[in-house]
Amino acid sequence: MNKRQFLLMGTALGVGSLMARTGLSQAASSGGGSFEISHSDAEWRSMLSQARFNVLRKEATERAFTSPLNNEKRAGTYHCAGCELPVYSSETKFDSGTGWPSFYKSLPGAIGTRIDRSLFMTRTEVHCRRCGGHFGHIFDDGPPPTGKRHCLNGLALTFKPKGAA
After folding, report:
1. What class, spelled out in words, does domain 3-161 have in CATH?
2. Structural element, H or E, at residue 103
3. Which of 29, 77, 106, 129 is deepest in the core (most CB within 10 A)?
4. pTM
5. Distance in angstroms (rounded) separating the CA atoms of residues 51 and 42
């Protein structure tokens, strides 16, 4: 690949990613019009840290191996960091080796999904069904019984140990 091809490919990747992310982030920021909990960007910014805002409302991805939740081993429940909806049980968490908290299934009725065509690939994005907060993506390389890997940003979640109030 020559320099010109490299630059053209880089530009195409950037534009394609920006176009895909702009459509998705506008839907998440506005609540997509179909979520129980909906706030303006200004309201979300006042409620969330900048890092959580970027992940939950703008579909950013935290760096691998940076979330303390990746190493969380206690029994309990993971909640949406945007609206506190319980979304995953520790019983379905597993070590995927990817550097992000991973689960093979969500709690019933807790998540929504949509197709994400950013970065020149098609993936399944997973989000909170109540507020639309972006969690991460679902892949088909997980363990039994589902064969799914819900690869999530730790910043999108909070953890409540079993028995905690």
Report:
1. mainly beta
2. strand 102-103
3. 106
4. 0.80
5. 15
